[in-house]
């Protein structure tokens, strides 16, 4: 592996983790389960406190969590407890919110509600999936009238909540969450034109809309306040083309080059890189899948710390 070189090559980032990395264990959200109008979720294998303890043990400095991890308990007492427990372990918290998640409605919230939740739990950043619906074919849907109408409504909702964002000192990040092209995220951030509002770049989501990974990262990097750092294996077989999650460094994403781009181009507001992996369950029992998740998480942490030099003490 080549040594990381270039502009800002020694730039430090905290090592974070999206709780979805352990989604087979019921953390984050249960994505993709829909049948006859019903939704399904993996049973949780532990509590948020258990996840905090694991993060501390594994050198994770920032936990990027969802309302599922809060058990959708947003009472002041519960959020105060979460804040206290995170501070006790020296963990920073980030909150991941969707407006209209396609398969796990437990992660949904409004902007107004989510800002209050984030402030009460001591989060530093709130990341939003906007769940914009594009018309098909996707390859020519970027900035389409249908998408622009939805995006404009979202921009206006954020504008209404800027006083609260300012009051709480929160960073806001809008994600290319399988639903927004890089150009669309950048358009929204530019329209909002506020120093506390930026983008969240997921380094694999661009594939869903047919965008190149490096091109997407290059476009979004100058606006990134949050990063979901992923790696996937990409291959074709008689059933089509597939993208399967894997440990960081094991896939077909040039993660070294991605970090060079982020170190050189991302603003100072980007201070954390959030590990996110999505290992397939096919071919395994749930128990085996959960064990492989943990193994993939640990392998990723090792690679990110030792090769990519991510982590305050890396």
TrEMBL record:
Pfam families: AP_endonuc_2. The keyword Transcription regulation does not apply. GO terms for molecular function: isomerase activity. Keywords: Isomerase. InterPro entries: IolE/XylAMocC-like (IPR050312), Xyl_isomerase-like_sf (IPR036237), Xyl_isomerase-like_TIM-brl (IPR013022). Signal peptide: none annotated. Residues 70-306 form the Xylose isomerase-like TIM barrel domain. The keyword Isomerase applies. Gene3D superfamilies: Divalent-metal-dependent TIM barrel enzymes. This is Sugar isomerase. It comes from Acidaminococcus intestini (strain RyC-MR95).
């Amino acid at each position: 592996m080549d040594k990381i070189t270039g502009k800002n090559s020694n730039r430090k980032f905290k090592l974070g983790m999206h709780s979805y990395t352990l989604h087979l264990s019921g953390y984050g959200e249960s994505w993709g389960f829909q049948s006859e109008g019903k939704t399904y979720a993996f049973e949780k294998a532990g509590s948020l406190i258990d996840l905090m303890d694991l993060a501390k043990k594994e050198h994770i400095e920032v936990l990027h969590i969802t309302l599922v991890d809060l058990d959708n308990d947003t009472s002041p007492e519960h959020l105060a407890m979460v804040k206290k427990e995170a501070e006790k372990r020296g963990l920073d918290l980030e909150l991941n919110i969707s407006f209209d998640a396609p398969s796990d409605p437990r992660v949904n919230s409004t902007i107004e509600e989510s800002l209050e939740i984030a402030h009460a739990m001591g989060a530093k950043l709130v990341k939003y999936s906007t769940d914009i619906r594009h018309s098909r074919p996707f390859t020519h849907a970027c900035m389409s009238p249908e998408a622009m109408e939805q995006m404009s409504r979202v921009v206006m909702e954020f504008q209404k909540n800027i006083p609260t964002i300012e009051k709480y000192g929160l960073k806001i990040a809008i994600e290319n969450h399988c639903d927004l092209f890089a150009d669309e995220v950048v358009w929204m951030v530019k329209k909002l034109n506020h120093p506390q509002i930026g983008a969240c770049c997921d380094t694999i989501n661009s594939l869903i809309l047919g965008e190149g990974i490096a091109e997407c990262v290059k476009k979004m990097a100058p606006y990134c306040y949050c990063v979901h750092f992923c790696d996937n294996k990409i291959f074709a077989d008689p059933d089509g083309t597939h993208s399967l999650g894997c440990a960081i460094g094991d896939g077909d994403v040039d993660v070294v080059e991605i970090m060079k781009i982020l170190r050189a181009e991302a603003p100072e507001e980007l201070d954390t890189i959030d590990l996110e992996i999505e290992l397939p369950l096919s071919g395994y029992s749930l128990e085996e899948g959960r064990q492989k998740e943990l193994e993939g998480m640990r392998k990723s942490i090792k690679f990110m710390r030792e090769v990519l030099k991510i982590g305050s003490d890396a």
